[in-house]
Amino acid sequence: MASQRTIEIWVGVFVAAGLAALMVLALQIAGLTELRQPPGYQVTAYFDNVGGLREKAPVNMAGVRVGRVETIELDTESYQARVVLRIDERYNRIPNDTAAAIYTAGLLGEQYVGLEAGWDDEPLAAGGRIGDTQSAVVLERIIGQFLTGMGD
Question: Which residue(s) pair with 81 in the sheet?
Fold first, then answer.
């Protein structure tokens, strides 16, 4: 009888460990948590509209993830969205005149920030600002413009 009880306890422990591992894996894949934050530097970009962009969204350059969106907040002076990007330390030679745009990936509409390198020899420094930005495309606005154009 005692061995039956021991087996039940061990099965319970393995089931709990398996569920915990699946939870951690799901959070990692979804990008909601990182076990460690890679060293990097912050840069700021201002957008008129960020659409559905969220914190922790990827920052890509040429299809390669080079960082993550750290914070998104409203700048009360310019009334634009102030987006702080954390760029991984190994990508410390990004040109100063780099442009940033908000794109949509996949059918589910996950948004990310895409960087397009400029030609400046001076690198984008920690605390720097990306001046050339393109806001998110809002589907409702495009449909509204299309319908308004058809009415004329």
Answer: 47, 74
Amino acid at 61: M
Cα(126)–Cα(123) distance, integer angstroms? 10
So what's the pLDDT on residue 20? 94
Whether 141 has a pLDDT exceeding 80, the answer reads no
Alpha-helix residue ranges (DSSP H) falling in 31-152: 139-151
Give the whole-angstrom CA distance, residue 56 versus residue 144: 30
Rounded to an integer, what distance in angstroms lies between the CA atom of residue 69 and that of residue 66? 10
Sign of the torsion angle spanned by Cα atoms 132, 47, 40, 111: negative
Cross-strand partners of 74: 81
Q: Encoding tokens for residue 120? A: 């400046």
Question: Taking 90 as the threshold, does the pLDDT of residue 27 lie above it?
Answer: no
pLDDT at position 114 over 70: yes
Which are the contacts of 72, defined by CB distance < 8 A and separation ≥ 6?
50, 53, 54, 55, 81, 82, 83, 84
